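Entry 14. Two folds queued back to back today. First construct below, sequence then structure tokens.
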Amino acid sequence: MNILVVNDDGIESEGLKMLVKACAHFGQVYVSAPKYQQSAQSHAMTLTEYLEIEEVKDIIGALKAIKVTGSPVDCVRAGMSIFDAEFDLIVSGINDGSNLGTDILYSGTVAAAMEGHLYHVPAIAFSAPTLDLPYLYDEVIKLLDEMIESELYNNTALLNINFPKPSFAKPLGTKITKQGRRVYESDLVKSDKPNLYHQSFSIIRYQEEADTDVTAYEEGYVSITPLMIEQTDFKKIKAILKNE
């Protein structure tokens, strides 16, 4: 297989390096990652500025690698354009931090995988609450093996995979889940410097349904959530047409 590995934490991320080594078990790995940290960039792309793209030679397991002064989506587009390869799979991550529920609206990790779908390439996004999970590398290899063997990533935009909270010594298993409702409340906090603020976040808790990614995370399971691009509210269309 030809596998394109991308992320939003940047080319120096330990999660990226771990993912590259895991993917190298299954084919030729190409890397296209941001030069700088690009978390929470969602599906942003660079339109009015130049992208600086440099070759990187020291990523173990990668056949070729580049770093890009742009967003995760820019990195996918750059990799698809620059590398002389037809990609069979795009794998994004491993993100240092979970991407559960409505996190996917902000996640550069998930957006990069979603961009792959726009190029008709199957995609997987990996996220973990911390990269210090002792089982993480072995579990990623195990999951990749199972998903590649079964081609589980076909016929959906992407698979969003999250490892459970770190209080579990290892996952209790794997669950196919739906997107939950992890919503953030934010506040602007003024700094000591004039006109400078930072955002403070706290999670608003919901009563989660049993089959969501958030519940799986809390109960010690790896969640695999198939996602799609389609956002049309078909129920609303039917209601409007019914009332015409």
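Second construct, same run, same settings:
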Amino acid sequence: MALIIPGVEVKVVKEVLAPQLAPSGVLGLVGIVENPSAAVGRAASWRSFIDGFGAASAFSLPEAAQALGNGVFELVVCPVACSSTASVKVPAATGNATAFTLAARAPGPWGNAISVSIQSRQIPTGKKLESGEDETRTVFDLIARYAGSDYKEVHRNLSADPADQIRNARDVLAAQSQLLRIGEDRDKLKPPKDSPDSKDASAAPYALAGASDADPDAYRQALAQLENEADVDMVLVSVQDTRDATRVGRIYADVISHCDRMSARSQGRIGFGEVPGATPAEIASAADKLTGTLVSDRFVLVAPAGVVGAVAGTTGSLDYFQSPTFKRLSGLGEPAPALGVEAQQELLRKNVVPIVAQRGRGIIVIRGLTTDGDQISVRRVADHAVRGVKTIGELFIGRLNNEEGRGALKQKLVEFLVQMQKEGAIVPSTDGTDPAFKLNVYSSQQDFAQGIVRVDLAVRPVRAIDYIYATVLVQV
């Protein structure tokens, strides 16, 4: 409004302030959890993961513990629908006519690795029979073991009788077990293999069996849920059954497609997978099958199997411009099988990341590279630049397309790129003749009429030093 009476009018215009980018190291984790119907959830700690997805998820989704233990910023967990659960039928114990079914707490073939020993006995109830003898009741001790680990559960003085409210097996396992529960009639269990032909429950051990992995379409549907999580910059699909390399490759191909699709939305992501195999020869054979179809600058293959969660966690804990090469992995035993020098060289030629134990260093990543042979950190730097340009550019949508507006946009982009250069994410050429970045913001007359401003940007990501060649002159 124009002043009529002489005076001063002051307008306060708030400067455009670019919001802070989401932290790097947010891992989208896709896999089978205890409650397959659970919605997509987040976990920044082990306690929040267990509380949100169930105790058995520690076994059905082991990559979660590895990633959190190696410093990933946050997990975004997408449950995979799976209805196949491992189980075993336990016959009636001596003196007890009640048979029951033990089932894994979470679906998926992980439960096939559970074995159970049951020892039944009679204990006094503290009451007397009419004959004057002590009254007894049948109870049993249940010992559950998980193959491939030292984990063991012991539950004592259980009763399988539903009418018995003292140490009822259903209630005790529901409250205390991470592995087992009593099977319900509504469970969609395959007919479990019966125990040995004996009425004595002490004829154990019993092995849970009958569970199969979710089909690739279920993994794809769960992966699609990550499209709504804009801050995710890493993706890991935990495939439980890796025996069929062709099936595993199909699931990993979906991960690459997902990462490419999200990069087109300026939400670049890197996927992680592992090469199955019990021996170096099997790993090499599986790597041949997988690397032939999974060549991408947005996918990382790790060998041997069982450590990919730790690699993703370590990558997420680093600054986005740092390489995981020679970085130490935490919370792991020695990788099996051990990869010798020749096996490491063969995998590196196929752009597979070997994980090995080195004396004095621990468990380390030999070289962090994608399946197309480029460094992981280079891809992450480029993705960070893309996210920054998108975030800053959105601040100017709807503003006047004039020289001042384009100048303001360029100034904000320069600020962002200078900060990346100060962090060491982008660098000038080694001879100093070419700058760390080049930027041009412009609009042609036709662009101006259509409300378009164009940004041409070039950045030079820093690269890790992977090789040092030294020349030693021996003087006399």
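Quick look at the second one. The chain has three domains: 26-82+213-317+325-367, 87-207, 378-459. The domain at 26-82+213-317+325-367 is CATH 3.40.1190 (UDP-N-acetylmuramoyl-L-alanine:D-glutamate ligase).
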